[in-house]
Design goal:
Arc Repressor Mutant, subunit A, Dna Ligase, domain 1, 2 domains, 6 helices
Length: 151
């Protein structure tokens, strides 16, 4: 995904923003991942490569990247307290966040895309954005709870 990094750096420059080493590092971290990551995960990966990067820098940079549409973001909790990010490329992804262990289970977007298509067909609307937050239990926790008779 080096071309995505180049495109993002070009966009930053065109919009009057400096291409700092920290911004480049965060682009590299995001480009090395296919899944969405929360700010803490991005910070840990970036900090392992450059101990001088701060969590505040990560948050500020993610905000800028989102405003410039360099990254996509999703909320993974219904109250929108937890947000995850990735470079704007690849197939759409959503997650179920386990309320027991906190893990995220990937949900492919085909079902959601069919729902949006049906909404457009039935209601005659144009959908420009949607937010889908799934919470429940991951496969491991579901199995454990079933075995204990709690589900």
């Amino acid at each position: 995904m080096p071309h995505l990094i180049d495109e993002a750096e070009t966009l930053l420059h065109e919009r009057g923003f400096k291409v700092t080493p920290q911004r480049t590092l965060l682009l590299q971290v995001l480009a090395s991942q296919t899944a969405y990551l929360d700010a803490d995960e991005i910070f840990r990966l970036a900090h392992s490569q450059d101990a001088s990067i701060s969590l505040a820098t990560v948050y500020r940079t993610l905000k800028l990247f989102a405003e410039l549409d360099i990254i996509e973001h999703r909320y993974v909790e219904p109250d929108h307290r937890r947000e995850v990010f990735r470079l704007s490329a690849g197939p759409e992804q959503h997650y179920l966040t386990c309320i027991r262990c906190g893990s995220r289970t990937l949900i492919h977007a085909d079902l959601l895309n069919r729902m949006v298509s049906e909404l457009v067909r039935r209601k005659g609307v144009s959908v420009t954005s949607a937010c889908a937050c799934f919470t429940g239990y991951c496969p491991t926790c579901t199995e454990e709870l079933r075995q204990r008779g709690e589900l």
